[in-house]
Structure formats: structure tokens, C-alpha cells
Design brief:
Length: 240
């Protein structure tokens, strides 16, 4: 991250015209992969991500937990989802994102209800434009719920960061690349429990608090989109 590129306009708005605490538009849809147990498609700004969830008995048998399910999220970026072609296959970043998403989802799922099961969450990033780990997690939790897996809550996430010395919500690609900090966070909204929190860059304690409170303010709106996505699927099916 570098701090010497201008990321704010003269009028105080960001380069894409957003105010400091303005999100990019988000759309979530469920039931997009017929053969999966659950699925979701999210468009978050220019990010486009599809998630398919499959629930099955864990295999081989010695990999099973006799008293609870295992959650395995696999984050994958398509080669042409980014400006400079991404080499196929797992790299450190991909493995890190798969791990933090698996852990965050595990905190929301009632794992004891599905002993010996494996919940596979396949995340395919079709277009990436910053904030993909959080968009992936937000969509994954909808896809897991769509699969009928018992959950305590729908994990919801958001990103904030620092660009041109200002704390901003939902970093754009330029703000992510050239800003001074990137802070993705996800919570279980019912209890406020934090299930993912990462910090890349430098912020003071005051700036960190400003960023988290900006994100906490934005979470309810994203949660509502998640709930609406699930409800609209079931209301259409009920009407058929
Ligand atoms: N990115 C890229 N090539 C890569 C990895 C990432 O162009 O191999 C871009 C992509 O747009 C991604 C952004 O850099 O969304 C920020 O990546 P980061 O590691 O911060 O994760 P994210 O913000 O997507 O969760």
C-alpha cells in the first residue's frame, strides 16, 4: 500500500463520487445453481461472486467429526476476474481467505446438528474489484442458509479503511491498492460477535474505532439485503 496517490476529490468526495461513509450498491440472489443444496450470487459494486453449497457425509470416514459438521470454504478467483490474469490454483492469499471465511461461517452454523457432515462452500469470484473476501462471506452465509443448514445467525460483513488520510467505508479498488489501511470485518448481527477482523496497513486507535463504528452502522442494511434475498426466493416458490 502506498500513500502518495490522490484518492479524494477537491469537493471532499471520493474518486468514484461516493461520500466517506457510502457503500457501493449490493444485490444478492439465491437459488442460482440448480444442482447445489444452496447457492447465492452477489454483486457488490463491480465484484461478481457466485457461491454453491453442498452438504454431505464427510469422506474419508477418519476425517469426520462424530459430534459436529466440518465447514470447508474454498475461495477461487477466475483467471480473468482481475486486470492482470490471476494464475490458476491456490496461493497464500486464496488459502488465507478460504480459512477466514470457513472459520467465520463455522461460528454461525449450529455444527452439532450435523454430526459427521461436511459443508462444502465453493466460492467463485467472476469479477474482483476490492472487498471480495467480505462479499464472498456475506454471500456464503446466504447460500448456507439456502441449503437449509441450521444457523444461529447470518454472518454479515463490510470493509472500511484509510484513503488520503480519511477513514472511508467499503474501499474501492484504488483505495484498497493505494490507501493506507484496509480493515475487513464480519459479525453475527444478533449478538454483535465479531467473527472476522483483519487489518492491513496503519491506523491509530481513534481511526480504528471510527472505521469499526462506520462498519457497524452499515451492517443492518446489508443484513436486510441478505434476508430479502432468502425471503424472495421462498415467496416466489410458495406462490407457484
Ligand atoms: N487482486 C488482484 N489480483 C490478485 C489478488 C487481488 O487484482 O491476485 C485485486 C482484486 O480486485 C481484489 C483486490 O485486489 O479484490 C484486493 O485484494 P485483497 O487481498 O485486499 O482482498 P479483498 O479486498 O478482495 O478481500
Amino acid at each position: 500500500m502506498e500513500g502518495n496517490i490522490k484518492l479524494m476529490r477537491e469537493d471532499g468526495l471520493r474518486l468514484d463520487g461516493r461520500s466517506l461513509n457510502e457503500m457501493r450498491p449490493i444485490k444478492i440472489q439465491t437459488g442460482v445453481v440448480d444442482r447445489a443444496d444452496g447457492s447465492a450470487f452477489i454483486e457488490w459494486g463491480a465484484n461478481k461472486i457466485i457461491v454453491a453449497v453442498y452438504v454431505r457425509e464427510a469422506y474419508p470416514k477418519h476425517a469426520q467429526n462424530i459430534d459436529r459438521a466440518i465447514v470447508k470454504a474454498r475461495y477461487n478467483m477466475s483467471g480473468y476476474s482481475v486486470e492482470e490474469r490471476k494464475r490458476p490454483g491456490p496461493d497464500r492469499r486464496t488459502m488465507e481467505i478460504s480459512k477466514v471465511v470457513s472459520e467465520a461461517l463455522s461460528s454461525a452454523i449450529v455444527l452439532e446438528k450435523l454430526p459427521r457432515a461436511e459443508i462444502d462452500v465453493f466460492i467463485q469470484v467472476l469479477e474482483a474489484d476490492a472487498g471480495t473476501r467480505i462479499a464472498s462471506l456475506t454471500a456464503s452465509s446466504v447460500a448456507v442458509a439456502d441449503a437449509g443448514v441450521p444457523m444461529r445467525d447470518l454472518v454479515v460483513g463490510c470493509t472500511a479503511g484509510k484513503a488520503d488520510g480519511k477513514i472511508v467505508l467499503d474501499l474501492s479498488k484504488d483505495e484498497d491498492n493505494f490507501g493506507q489501511a484496509d480493515i475487513p470485518m464480519a459479525i453475527l448481527p444478533r449478538t454483535g460477535k465479531v467473527v472476522l477482523l483483519q487489518l492491513d496497513g496503519d491506523v491509530t486507535e481513534e481511526e480504528f474505532n471510527e472505521a469499526t463504528s462506520m462498519m457497524m452502522d452499515a451492517m443492518p442494511r446489508i443484513s436486510e439485503l441478505q434476508r430479502n434475498a432468502l425471503m424472495s426466493k421462498y415467496s416466489i416458490e410458495d406462490g407457484e
